[in-house]
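Need the bound structure for 4'-deoxy-4'-aminopyridoxal-5'-phosphate, inputs here:
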Amino acid sequence: YDDRDGFIWFDGALRPWREANVHILTHAMHYASAVFEGQRCYNGTVFALEQHSQRLIESARLLGFEIPWSLEQINAATNEVIAANGFTDCYVRPIAWRGSEQMGVAAQRTKPHLAIACWHWGAYFGDEVLAKGLRLDIASWRRPAPYTAPTRSKAAGLYMICTLSKHAAADKGYDDALMLDWRGQVAEATGANLFFVKDGALHTPTPDCFLDGITRRTVIGLAKARGIEVIERAIWPEEMSSFEAAFLTGSAAEVTQIAEIGPWRFTVGGMGKQLAADYAALVRGQSRNS
Ligand code: PMP
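Answer from helper R.:
Posting the output first, comments after.
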């Protein structure tokens, strides 16, 4: 991703893509003192920009550092970098991290940085998989307890187990992995939240040790607007056989249907497809000022 034309917003200025670099002794690289966001721009408007920028600020605070830019400045910088690259539809990746002023676990003297990149990113799982529905492995790595790591932070360090799980799934021919939490309850996929359909209602795990995704909350709102009951609760893997359908939600993944989880099979279509269409209409239909 480092060798292309375009611009990346970096600590207050637009830098040519190939020059948006950091030093090898950056604290974040050694000790995972980095937090990031992921959002999509549709028809020139970033969906839920405020919420993403706010979560970025909160994620950094949970790791003990303050981003030296205000919410308004981060929003403006996001729009600026999208415009500078000439995009109307793209994925946006803000990242904040501790710099290279100090080595060792302690990082009080490091300078916080912020960069925002954007690029074209089609269907997260690819168009072919999207049509058939995803096949998920059950990961052997588990989401940590909230007393083990700051699980409400979109912290780079927490993605180590996601990459491990995703690679293990891919090695077995799966598209992604379902991760259980430390109790053995169903948690989420490696970069998206999970929903299940049963008897006309939606069931989704309570987000008490993983991200309460912005897409997740949006889809809950869309379901309720359709009069669909949404039940947030602890879900155990043994229950998989009782669910008729399943899908996942995320800013990159949007609403993606699931065809298989381990030994269990699901119907692709119905309520999940309807909510995917509702989500697509919502993110594309909004006005610039909404
Ligand atoms: N869980 C994980 C691990 C994720 O990476 C994401 C994507 N940010 C989500 C859930 C969904 O969050 P959102 O809908 O806010 O993108």
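Comments: The radius of gyration is 19 Å. The helical segments are 27-31, 49-62, 71-84, 127-132, 160-171, 214-225, 271-285.
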